[in-house]
Structures are given as C-alpha cells and as structure tokens.
Batch of 3 targets.
Target 1
Amino acid sequence: MKFIGIDIAKSTFVTAYPLPTGGYRTKTYPNDPKGVALFMKSFSQEGHHCVLEATGNYGMLLLYMLCKAGIAVSQVNPKQIKHFARMMMTVTKTDDVDAKLISLYGEKMCPPVYRFPAESLLILKQKKVIARQLRKQLVALSNLKESLQALPIKDKASLKSLDKTLRFLKARIEEIDADIADVASSAFEQQIASLTSVKGIGISLATSLVISTGGFSQFETSKQLARFVGIYPSYQQSGSSINIRGKISRNGDSNLRSLLYIASWSAIRYNETCKEAYERLKARGKPSKVALVAVANKLLRQAFAICKSNSRYVDGYKSTLNKNANSSCFLT
C-alpha cells in the first residue's frame, strides 16, 4: 500500500507521491472540484491510500470527492503530525515537506479509513457553528450595551440600533435552534429518543452529542468517546517517583464539555447511578467540581451505551455488556 500525503491550504493542496526508488514527488493542485478531479486521475485507486490533516472546511471537498469515488482516505489530527515531525527531528516546514511527512506518517502508522458523515449531519454541524457564532456576537453586543449605559451622555440612536441588532440576533438564534432540533429529531429520531431517556440529558445535549460524535458511529468504545470529548483523566507514571492522576485532557469540543458539566447538576439529583457516584466521591473528600466532572464522564458513557445498544435508559439497571468494551452505563 502506497500512502499519498496531502497538505491542505485555502486555495490549493500539495500532494506527496512515494516513489519506487525512494523519496517523494510533490505536486500542487487547486482546491476546487476540477483540481480534485485532476488529482484523482493521477493515481490508481487500488494500492493507494490518501492521508490528510483535519483542516476544517477547507479539506471537506477533497474528503467528499475521494469518499464518493471509493478511494481510501484517512483524516488525522494535526497534533499527531506535529509530534511525528518532532520525532523525525524535522527543522524545515513548508507545504512540500508537510505533505511528505504526512505520507510517511501514513506509511508508519496506517491510520483508519475515514467514513464520511451523512448529509443531514453536515447540515446540522453548519447550523450549530452559525448558532455558536451568533451567541458570541450576542454576548459581545450585550456587554457593549452595558458599557455604553454607564456613560453620562448617551447616544439614543446608537442604543436603539444596538437594541434592534440584539433582538435580531435573539430571533435568529431561536430560529436556528428550532431548525437544529427539527433536523436532528427527523434524521436521528431513535438516537435522540434514547438519549433523552437518560435522566440528566435534554434535547440540547442530545443533539450536540449526535452532531459532535457523528451519531456515535466513529467510536468503538466509551473510552475513545471520552478522549475525543476531552473529559478523560490524564495519568502519568514513571518508575517509583512519578505517579500522577492529572486533570482531564480538554482536547475536544469545549461547548460539549460545558453542556455535559451543566447536565451533571441535574444528573446528581435525578439519575440514581450518577447520584451514587457523586455522593461516593464527596464522601472520599473530593471537591465538588471534581465529582461533577466525574459524573459528566459517567453521563457520557451512559449515553454511549444506550445508543450502541439501541435501547432506552432504565434507572438503576446494571449493564451486562462486556467490561472490556468499556460501554457499561454504570461505572464503579
């Protein structure tokens, strides 16, 4: 298998083809449908595997066309390539060098084949991003209004314009949130129903979980999911002098972690297993925030188990799933 490394930019992408005699041949293509089509004609589908970094929206067209054509492609975390480059002691950073490194990474690590998400999931992600940006604007303008009201002389026209913009943003956010709920309930009806059956998980968190995880289709175990969300505790051990159980990794979606943390407040009141876990940790002297983060982790695992088993939540039920699968609803 030959791995083709691809370095994505806004207008172009650089490819690195491994040569039979060693080394690489690089070529630059336009990052548009014609450029991607030209790239796909430059190699045979059999025996080739494309590898690229996750670069947000700029790499989605290439991913989409490669997956649609049935060409094996992998999308890797840029941090993995960054640390791989450090391991190789690379001192030069150019688009060509990056493409070669990505190709070498694919050869050494054999990353899994990327599964392109459903169309409804892409639509939901776009709506979620827009709603998040509008909320940021709403907070910024609300703070601006408060600061202007502290002035001794106020411009009524400016405040009126600000109020009009704030009303518009609130209306647009409500409209987009309703659209997200409608699309999610229609495309992922079974999963949304299963998730909202868990005590502590509402429609907002359920929708965010489906959008961020691709309907849980990209994960085999709950540990993988917890690491992806960034709510998994870090651990350091070396010899007899270092044995540290550190903070959560915080690598994933900060908004999803916030929703899980807020949901833990309700879970410790109404979710029997989460309540027991919280009380047990508090009895051991753990701070309330640490215990709540642990409950958020447990809530995430419950959601994973419910969706993977395609069932509804039963409070107090003890899972009979294989412990090695790490998909138990209730951790001890």
Target 2
Amino acid sequence: MKRPPSVSVMLVLGVLVLAAVLGTQSVHAQQGGFFEPEPEPATEGTPPENALDKSDLEFFLRHLYVMNPGIDVEITDYKPSSIDGLMEVTFKATQGNRAQQRSYFISKDGRSIIEGRSYEITKNPFHENLDKLSNLGRPAFGKEGAPVVIAVFSDFQCPYCAKEAKVLRTQVAQDYPDNVRVYFHDYPLKRHKWAYQAAVAGQCIQQLDPQAFWTYHDWIFENQRSITEQNLDDKVGEFASAHGLDTLKLSPCIERQETKPGVDESIRLGRDLGVRSTPTMYVNGRRLTGNVRWAQIKQVIDYEIAYQKVTRNAGDDCGCQVELDIPGQE
C-alpha cells in the first residue's frame, strides 16, 4: 500500500470516553489532580454530555483530576486539529503562582476526549518551539553554525540555575567545542527580590561588552549567596571596576533601567514557550526542566548531532551564507 506524502503520527497518552467515567474514577483519584488539592465534588447540575461544550468539558476534567473550586480554569476556543475528524482545545489550570496546561483532541460528535499531542512525521517534532524561539541578540558562547543549540532560560538568584550554569559553562566547551552553541535568556522569577535588577544589569553589560557578559554571568552565580537586594548595585559596581568596564556608561544604563524592555521581552518569550520554572533549557527545541544531570544533557546532544546530519531541521543559523555582488548582474 502506497503511503501518503504527509503522515501525521498521534501519540495517544490516554483515550477518555465520556461513557467510561466510572471506570477511570478510582485510578485518577489515587493519582491526584493537577495540584493534589482537597476535592470538593459538585453536588448539583446535570451530567456532562458534550465535550464541545466548555462547561461540560470543565466539569468532566475537574472530576478527572480532582480539582477543587480554588483552582481557576481557562479553556481556549476549539479549533480544527491537524488530525482529520478531531478538534483541539487547551485546558489551563491556575492556583496562585502555579499553573499547568494540557492539550486535548475532541471528536466532532463531542463524545470522546483524547489527551495527547500529534506530530507530523515530515517536520521536526519540536518545530513549534523552534518557530517561537528567537536567539537574535542574546548572549551566546560556542561555535556559530553548530548543529545543536541550547537556549537557557535562567534566573541569577536561582540556586539550581547556578549549578546548571556551571555545568554548561565547563562541559560544553570541553566536550562540544564545534557542535553546540548556548544562548542565555533572562527569566527572573517574581519571588526572587534582586533577580530582575540583576538581569537588567546583565543586559547593560552585554550591550557594553558582549564578552564581559559571560564574566558577569559566572561571577554573579558564584557569588549568589553574598548578594542581596540592598547590596546588588554596589556589588555590580565593584565587579565593573575590577574588570575594567566603563562605569560612566554602565551606571546610567542600570540606574535608568535602559535594558528593561529587553528583559521583559525575554520573559514574554519564555511564557510563550511555556516556561514555568528555572532553569529551563531547549536543546534544539526539546524542553528540559530543572537541574538536569550532564549525562542526560549529553545523551540528548549526541542524539541531536546524529539526527541533524540527516534532517538538518534545527541548529544554529550563523548567518554565514553571504551573497556577493557580481559585476554585470542585477
């Protein structure tokens, strides 16, 4: 049988038929919900009948994940999915500073819910992240044009970020001098009192001297425990003087927060990508969260190097291709 030119591969994590609620009830009650809340089951209303009705879908999913009324729910508009016969919708649950979201496919008769993701076999499985992810102008180290790109969303006050940063700064240069390029993206968390201002200072230093940014990056993570909201500006000033930076240019940039738009744009990008914690890194679009061991990162990098030799659908765009003007041709 001849294959069609474009094949969609669907990974079904769980097919939930509305008529089988009783069969899944005990399993999900044991697993807990989105945030393992204390449940407050509904005692009024009518049974859900149509997953294409947002109220019915919310009612069903709140029961499925044992979600109490204190968890806010947002359901996106239904849209046609990449799979014939299925609609797609995103369900987002929020409680305080914590949030999770999941995608579902709904049959057009509204009777079946499929939890999972669909992939098109002719595209990079992480192409949606790659399409969103812009590294233009971001601090970087490693070889331009490398087949593997690691985009790191980090917070200068985050202790796990400090550990991950040290691993990347040492191991990438040592093990992959020609095959990996690392980009840094600011993602200061609100609960960290001095992280945002440290990000502003870092981008000011980046503008002044791109190489000095990485010196600042390593220094602030190494001295993280001695920095406070009150002494940050003095500490950064001491760093700048010790490393020969032009403080007459740097100080006004930091004081006026001239790089605030750049920090805010980095945060917005992270949110668009679904970053919820730090560190979060994207290895050729593949998301890795938390303090990931180097052995795991290395395994992903090795796989990506081999994969890109065949597909060439990710990696660093170094801008190395230059079109020269040829006399006599327009």
Target 3
Amino acid sequence: MPTTPTTSVPLVIGVDSGGTGTRCAVVGLDGRVRARGQGPGGNLRSSPDPAGALRQALEDALGGIDRRRIAAGHLAFAGAAGEDGGTYRDMATRVWRQARLPGAPAVGDDLAAAVAGATDRPDALLLLSGTGAVAALYRGGARTARRDGYGWLLGDEGSGVWLGRQAVVLALAALDGRGPATALLDVLPRALGVDTGGADGTGTALARRMVTAVHAAPPAELARLAPLVDAVARNGDRIADRVVTEGARLLLRTLDSLADTAGPDFAALPVVLAGGLLTGTTLLADRVTAVLRDRGTATVPARDGATGAAALAALALRSGATPAEARRLHRTVAGLEPA
C-alpha cells in the first residue's frame, strides 16, 4: 500500500506485531514513509497464523516498492524477548526470505519499538496497559529491567483483561448477593453474548450463563469489556469506578517498583505511556497521568511502533554514527518532533 513515490534513498522496514494487529512501515532514511501495511495479530500464543499475519502486513506494504532497495529491517513482536524469542526469529527470517527481501531482519520485542517510536531519549521508563500490562526501564536505549507482563493468570495488573475480569467478578457478586448492586449488569451480559431472558429471581441462572460464556472464550477476550467498564464508571457507577481506580493504582505500583533499580534520577525520567488504555481517552489514562503530573513526571504517549521499529533498523544500519548523528537519524525515521 505505497503512499509516496520512491527515491534513491535507502529504505528500512519496521514491523510492530501484537495480539490484535500487525503494522508495517517502509521508511526512507530521509524520514518519508514510503508505504504502510497491515495484517491480523501475530502473537505466537494467541494468533492462529503469526507467519501469515506478518506476510500479509509485509506484502500489503511492499506492493509498489523495489525490494532491492530495502537496506535493513526490524520486526518487533509482543513476547519476542522471552522464551519464544527463538521461535519468533526463525519465523520472521523465514517470512522475510519468502518475501524476497535482502539480508535478514533484526527481531525484538514490541516494548522497545514503542519506546523508540515515542522518544529518542536513551534513558526512559515505559508503562503499558492494553490487553496486558507491563513496565520497563531503559538505559542507553536498552531495556535493563522489566516488571509484570506475566499474563492474565499471574499478572498484567491494570490491563484490559484485568479490568474485564474484575468487572465480571463484581457483577457476579452483585448477582448472588455477595456484593452491592452495579450497573455493570446492564451491559456485561450482552457483551458476553448471554441471554438474560428467563433468569430466576436470585440471578443464579444469569450468573451461570456469564460464567459459561467467559470460560468458553480465550482469556484475552475479557479485554473487550474494558471500554464498557470505563463507560459505566463515567456514568457514576461506584463499583465500575472502583475497578478503574484500582487498575490505575496497580499500574502506578508496577511503575514505582522500578525506582530502586533506576536509582536517584527515577523521578526525572520520562515515562512513555503505551497500550490503548493509556494512549486513548480513558478514565484509566486520566487517573494515571494525573498522578504522574502531580509528581512533576514528564509523560510521552507512544505514537507509532512500526516507525519506532524502522528507527531501530536505521540505527543498526548506521551503527558507526556519532551520538549526535544517531539521535538525528532516530528522530527523522521515527517521525519525532525536532528537539
């Protein structure tokens, strides 16, 4: 899906692939985005065809591009820094070659791409809340510490899945009398595809249907409930508001757990806010940013992980650049505002 005419400038490819989508950007070292492409989610643990998702995004972007002019690529995947790293590298290299691209791509995680797409500061913090949740510390452009990101069963506190799960838990408590009434019951059953007709007066039948629906779907599907929790909280429901407030507290706790590792300049480091729940217009984002603003902490919204990945590819291509040259190149390819 080319967007501008090609030139003789070397081109780099950046890919940002997560659980819900795969985005590709072909960028010149002059900063012009030559083409973009998209594909479905490419997470090894949740996508039915991660290789196909990557292939689709690459081919969508490369339709009108002379592939011989691709000088480097950086492909970022959620989870690529963990135990699945080798599998991601093998898959990405295979698809790259099948796309008739020269050389071999670098493969990394999506957190680094998010940071690179938001700031050229080598020292920064990341706080992400989307389907999952994680915080990380970057020094000299490299990640030196990470907190949470353990998945829905063991962590991801303050994530979309966490918000959705808590909302269902509290709605069930309201149904069987263990908790107070909540307007969440007006929206969650329908969102779960549950028929509310014929429920008994005690709510037992509806509760069972909700439980069955939740267990029948992948856990990540609970993240779809997060916008509903936000909407109900905005309408004044104190139970939904409690979920959002607790989610914000847990996210800030995860971020603050990096303080000892970061050292005395922790409060001075910029925080890159990433994930749809922290970059979108949400109550969760409002509450997290309000606390950080009161602390005097600078926040930077994540912008474009694909061009961030492209910037990482460009920096690897020009590894001999001086620090000042590298910073200019980073800002140019990532499309960041001039310093």
